[in-house]
Design goal:
mainly alpha; 2 strands; globular
């Protein structure tokens, strides 16, 4: 592992927790939180915001304040990256409430997000000295280490920031022209002759292209494989063999399966098969992590007791956490607030529910903090841990006499708080690794994380409402795969209404894929999502593969531009949602080409997408003279 700690010595008196650093970080937390909420609801995954936040921070600090220390830039990215992680935990769970037809209050979303985020931070703090310091050589924390390298090479911030801003402007302009003025179709489709209900689509979205570039060709190919199985194997088979059968899912519709189109079969069947595959894929990821889980839990609990027993120890600046007595006090306060929250919402047995939240949060925060040190935040099996939480919690609540709406709401609240804590703990671990490498002050970073969670929690509820009102959470535009899965799991346990046959088909499909030695979770997500979402992702993955071969090394410029594409498109999507929500879209409707010969053309819709793909390739490719063997 690269050794450059400390970029700032222990004894140095360098600006770190400044108003400009924290303020900029809070703004970035809101921006990246909104962007990742949109992306996560659309495709079921989020992207790490640490490096983009660090690059943007360095550029803004240099432009507005002329000078900023490496520790101030690190503080900005620490606060800013919390927004992405909180958004991931929120959109994986809370949208399930919208899917059930219930609109939670903004204050309710804020409280769940805040409780989960702060629990993830305070439970992780006692683990820092063991996971980050003692296990420094064994746990690389890939995103945290990469972010430290970017900060250490801060003089390159101008060129790196340029890639982010080019991506952001391109993504925003593309989204405005496509979804705002509706100059071209967002998802061109082509019926494949000779295959009953064979439908090939492509969501012409820069953010999906960018996701494929970031995750790389292998994971993108796994997702495409799942999509192909669903749309070119299972849907045609259902269409052929079910031509004389009515739908067992919605028999009241009296619709013959053979009369259903591809999208109707996806809605009635593939979503449940995909949900079973995602559930099993998540559990397999969790099972693979059992040795790590056991070791992390043992070491984490031992470190917590060890830290609590220490008295009157003076730590160096770069090794000073929030004191354990304050951490324990915060845990007690959060537990009391959680119990009060359940009582306020009229949920009976609030003590039982609070105990479940605290136990699952502590256990899985420990697991998450350790796992991301090995595989990175993007491979953190948060879905599997959340599903395990929901299954156990739902079963306990059901056996305790809670069912129906009350039991479902209690279960999703438990799952939401735990899931948000899992995601935030992974982000906090990466940020503390970055701080360890560059010589930051841990307790200041931990305070920064708390502020970042607070800032993004204030905005995430508004974002969900805007997106739901404008696009519809659970619709084709915002499929919300994880939230749909969580809703299915809880409702299935509480009401025994889940079509288990379809779920088992998906589950065994994931097991077969796992036996081939393939990442079943990525495959399962591809099976669950519409194929039109996987096709642009694989194109981005192929571009990444070609660029890396030409450059003869891993590319960073393309990753930064991809992050900009995601942020730009997502933020413009949220802005358009604001216009739709407040019915300010008269100009958009007047200038729409949607029903014209160009606006309705499938072929024309591919042209701007190809241009963006070409731009990504051009920006990412290093000139020949810069490549050294």
């Amino acid at each position: 592992m690269k050794e450059f700690r400390h970029a700032v010595p222990d004894e140095a008196n360098v600006a770190e927790f400044s108003f400009k650093a924290v303020g900029l970080g809070a703004i970035l937390a809101v921006i990246f939180g909104m962007a990742n909420a949109y992306l996560g609801l659309k495709v079921g995954m989020t992207v790490s915001a640490s490096i983009p936040a660090a690059v943007v921070s360095m550029a803004v600090m240099r432009y507005l304040f002329k000078k900023a220390t490496i520790l101030e830039n690190n503080m900005s990215q620490t606060v800013g990256s919390a927004g992405e992680s909180l958004a991931a935990g929120v959109i994986f769970t809370i949208p399930a409430i919208f899917i059930w037809g219930v609109d939670p209050k903004l204050f309710e979303i804020f409280v769940m997000a805040l409780l989960g985020g702060w629990m993830g931070i305070v439970f992780m703090i006692p683990l820092r000295r063991y996971l980050i310091v003692k296990e420094h050589d064994n746990l690389p924390y890939p995103e945290g280490t990469a972010c430290a390298e970017v900060l250490a090479a801060g003089e390159e911030g101008g060129s790196k920031a340029k890639a982010v801003f080019i991506g952001g402007i391109t993504g925003a302009l593309y989204k405005f022209l496509m979804s705002g003025l509706r100059l071209w179709k967002g998802a061109p489709e082509k019926v494949i002759p000779g295959i009953k209900n064979g439908l090939l689509g492509l969501e012409s979205s820069p953010s999906l292209l960018a996701v494929g570039y970031i995750i790389g060709p292998r994971i993108a190919a796994y997702m495409l494989g799942g999509g192909l199985l669903g749309w070119f194997v299972i849907i045609p088979l259902i269409s052929i063999f079910g031509s004389a059968l009515s739908s067992p899912i919605y028999p009241s519709q009296e619709m013959l399966i053979g009369d259903m189109g591809a999208w109707e079969i996806w809605d009635n069947y593939i979503r449940y098969i995909g949900a079973g595959a995602v559930a099993v894929g998540g559990f397999v990821s969790l099972i693979k992590s059992i040795p790590t889980i056991f070791e992390s839990f043992k070491e984490g609990f031992g470190e917590l007791l060890h830290s609590a027993s220490k008295k009157k120890i003076v730590f160096k600046r770069t090794d000073y956490d929030i004191p354990i007595k304050y951490v324990l006090l915060m845990i007690i306060c959060l537990a009391i607030l959680t119990m009060g929250w359940f009582m306020y919402n009229g949920i009976e047995a609030p003590v039982l529910v609070t105990i479940l939240v605290v136990i699952f949060s502590f256990f899985f925060v420990t697991v998450s903090s350790r796992i991301v040190g090995i595989v990175g935040s993007s491979s953190n099996p948060a879905s599997g841990m959340t599903i395990a939480t929901l299954l156990v919690a739902s079963l306990i609540l059901y056996l305790s006499g809670y069912s129906g709406h009350e039991g479902m709401m209690a279960a999703i609240t438990i799952g939401a708080i735990v899931c948000i804590g899992i995601c935030i703990a992974g982000d906090t671990s990466q940020d503390l690794k970055t701080g360890y490498l560059v010589g930051a002050t841990p307790w200041k970073q931990q305070i920064g994380e708390l502020i970042g969670v607070l800032a993004s929690a204030l905005a995430i509820g508004f974002t969900l409402y805007l997106l739901n009102e404008s696009y519809g959470i659970g619709s084709k535009e915002l499929a919300a795969p994880q939230a749909n899965l969580m809703a299915m799991v809880i409702k299935g346990v509480m009401t025994n209404s889940l079509p288990w046959g379809l779920v088992f088909v998906g589950g065994f499909s994931a097991l077969v894929i796992e036996l081939f030695g393939i990442n079943s979770l990525a495959f399962a997500v591809g099976l669950y999502l519409p194929l039109s979402l996987s096709t642009p992702i694989i194109i981005g993955g192929v571009i990444k593969m070609v660029v890396d071969k030409l450059n003869k090394k891993e590319d960073e410029t393309g990753i930064l531009m991809s992050s900009g594409l995601i942020a730009g498109e997502a933020l413009m999507g949220v802005l358009i949602a604001v216009f739709v929500y407040f019915k300010w879209n008269t100009i958009i409707e007047m200038t729409s080409w949607e029903n014209g010969p160009i606006g309705s053309s499938d072929l024309f819709a591919l042209i701007p997408f190809v241009l963006v793909a070409a731009l990504l390739f051009y920006i990412s490719k290093i000139k020949k003279e810069e490549v050294k063997d």
